[in-house]
Amino acid sequence: MKSxxxxxxxxxxxxxxxSCRLVLAIAGGGTGCLPLLFARSGASRILVxxxxxxxxxxxxxxxxxxxxxxxxxxxxxALALRxxxxxxxxxxxxxxxxxxxxxxxxxxxxxxxxxxxxxxVASETERLRAHLSFKKGQATREEQEQILxxxxxLLLASAxxxxxxxxxxxxxxxxxxxQRDYVAEPIQHFFSNTGRWMTVAADGRQAIEGQVEASALLxxxxxxxxxxxxxxxxxxxxRLRGTVALELSALNADKSAVSLPELRQRLRAFHxxxxxxxxxxxxxIEKARFFPGMTWVLGVDTARRILDPKYYGGEExxxxxxxxxxxxxxxxxxMGRSEAGLFRTLDDVALPAKARDLFQAVPENEFRAxxxxxxxxxxxAQCSPSPSE
Length: 389
Fold this sequence. Notes:
Elements: H1 8-16, E1 21-27, H2 33-38, H3 43-46, E2 47-51, H4 56-63, H5 73-88, E3 96-104, E4 115-122, E5 126-134, H6 141-161, E6 174-182, H7 186-190, E7 197-200, E8 206-208, E9 216-219, H8 227-240, E10 244-249, H9 260-268, E11 276-279, H10 284-290, E12 295-299, H11 300-306, H12 315-327, E13 331-335, E14 337-339, E15 342-344, E16 359-362, H13 373-383
Parallel strand pairs: 1-2, 1-3, 9-10, 9-12, 10-11, 12-13, 13-16
Antiparallel strand pairs: 3-4, 4-5, 5-6, 7-8, 7-11, 14-15
Helix pairs in contact: 1-6
């Protein structure tokens, strides 16, 4: 016997029973599902937020890039992935899901293109997509909206709560194509020892050993990213008349390896601000071998550290490494910082002969920002309530 299709209210209950974190991004039609989802008590436990980037300018701003087309499968997926990134930041428990929907529905003006909608639900391991095609003149805008709301809830219940979609029963004037793909993101492949580096664009796009187009890299742990880092990148970009990306190593000669959850958290701060490169290089000479001809933007403390013979087993070994830096056409742009109340610059560092031509100082009047991630973390810890409070 054919079972009765679940009502919209029952589908909402399925989503709420999934104990997930959900953000919705709807560019136009389909917003009718929001009152159904947000009207329930306890909505904040599941729903992290919703965004309606209605219009190309708002859409581009939300995606942090220019969308090739407002209504297409790629834009729906980009909306879902951006929404999922926001869901990851929620403090509640449960897997993160992002929902994206973009559509061109019936209108009072003459529409040259098709009346259609693209939907996508993105999780860490899955993409559930739908393409709705409406036959012109067969349904009003209100009827198309009802169908779009129905399909939105069916996709969410299926993705979040493994509820079978079944027969969507959308009428003879509408066709639907469904697709479910299981995926692993580049960052997951990277942590499975695939590739030497991974590029992460400001809009969130990732690529294993992607093309690094920046003229300089600013290395750091960025725990957290702060305006000092961004100021260094901006100053270097002006000086070099190029672009600067941030480089974050999953390995470090002085610190423990960065875990996948930690890396995700740090990269979230980069979104919409700057491009990043994640490497599997613990030392600077390894980084230089990955990117010959690169300029490295450093604070004076880091410059002092990479010149320290203890990391090379003595001065002779260090000098050989700096000979290799020269052969790789690596250069270092060094900015000062405050240390124990004094502003230290490259002039305060003893440069060995083999390294002298590779380093260039940025004067204090060009850049100074008395900030450090360590101090920011200390202040944050002091402001946090103790477990007994």
